[in-house]
Design brief:
This protein is α+β, with helices and mostly antiparallel strands and about 300 residues long. Helix content is about 50%, strand content about 15%. GO terms for molecular function: thymidylate synthase (FAD) activity.
């Protein structure tokens, strides 16, 4: 992805302008403010605004008038307690507004998270750019034989090149027709709200996405997971780096209890107790289905 000189100048101007404030700021987040982080071939993630920091979480939990305790270890312990016991409200005190440029098919996955405020670029009002997501060769894979919504082995050689050519040619042809339908040279030109329906799902759109930290963590837990689709995972991983700098104590707890943790069912707890007591437990004697047992063994051996 390459930003235009005008866009780079706009970002530089925004970062050069400082304003005095009494509200809490995060040094880590200030470094990310307005900066365009490149994702995929034409995408980006930018922080437009944010509210709160680690101290805002603990302040809300204690309902204090100021910073509360100044001991970092106490704040860290409280944040870990809140995360461990699924106390979500204090994390909702922090908010962030992202500017995201992403392919339409990724946006349709993303919008399933209905806990944010979204304003998308309007193709009824404006004309979309000639920008499409074309996967890198290492991301071209066949349908998985064990996962109905996942990828399997990589495509190689002539087959991979044939798919790339089809994706590129179809996208360009669709955009050519889009421009032709919009054109008012010798014709009235089709309305933008109708012409857009001819564009493919890999065309890029943009939106502002504002979300609180609790719901952002939920988004990242699902979309930065290794099982998530690569394209949306690329955005989630970029956002993970930003959030880690913004609220380092909260992000460390999130990594520990959500990303690196595991949820165990009541049956799973019972199996673990029986194992610790020396019993050899099988799937048949566990009370679990084959699928649940397979997932249990993947974590617990």
């Amino acid at each position: 992805m390459t930003l235009t000189p005008e866009q780079l100048a706009e970002i530089a101007e925004a970062r050069a302008t400082t304003r005095p404030t009494l509200r809490a700021t995060s040094e880590g987040m200030e470094r990310h403010l307005y900066v365009a982080h490149e994702v995929l071939d034409h995408g980006l993630v930018r922080v437009i605004d944010y509210m709160g920091d680690d101290a805002a979480i603990t302040q809300a939990a204690r309902v204090s008038y100021g910073r509360g305790t100044k001991a970092v270890q106490n704040d860290e312990g409280l944040i870990r307690y809140l995360m461990r016991h699924w106390h979500s409200t204090p994390f909702e005190m922090c908010e962030v507004k992202f500017h995201v440029k992403l392919p339409v098919f990724v946006a349709r996955q993303w919008i399933r998270h209905r806990t944010a405020n979204v304003n998308e670029y309007s193709a009824r009002y404006s004309i979309l750019d000639r920008e499409f997501y074309i996967p890198a060769p290492e991301q071209l894979a066949a349908q998985s034989t064990v996962n109905n919504q996942g990828r399997g082995e990589l495509l190689e050689g002539d087959e991979a090149q044939r798919v790339l050519d089809i994706l590129r040619d179809d996208a360009m042809r669709a955009y050519d027709h889009y421009e032709n339908m919009l054109s008012q040279e010798g014709q009235k030109g089709l309305a933008r709200e109708l012409a857009r329906m001819n564009l493919p799902a890999n065309v890029y759109t943009q939106w502002y996405w504002k979300v609180d930290l609790h719901n952002l963590f939920h988004f990242l837990r699902l979309r930065a997971d290794a099982h998530a689709q690569y394209e949306i995972r690329a955005y989630a991983e970029t956002m993970c780096g930003i959030v880690k700098d913004w609220v380092p104590l909260a992000y460390a707890a999130f990594e520990d209890y959500r990303m690196g943790g595991a949820t165990v069912s009541a049956k799973g707890v019972e199996v673990l107790k029986r194992r610790l007591a020396g019993e050899a437990v099988t799937q048949e004697s566990s009370g679990m289905s084959k699928g649940e047992w397979r997932e249990f063994e993947a974590v617990w051996g």
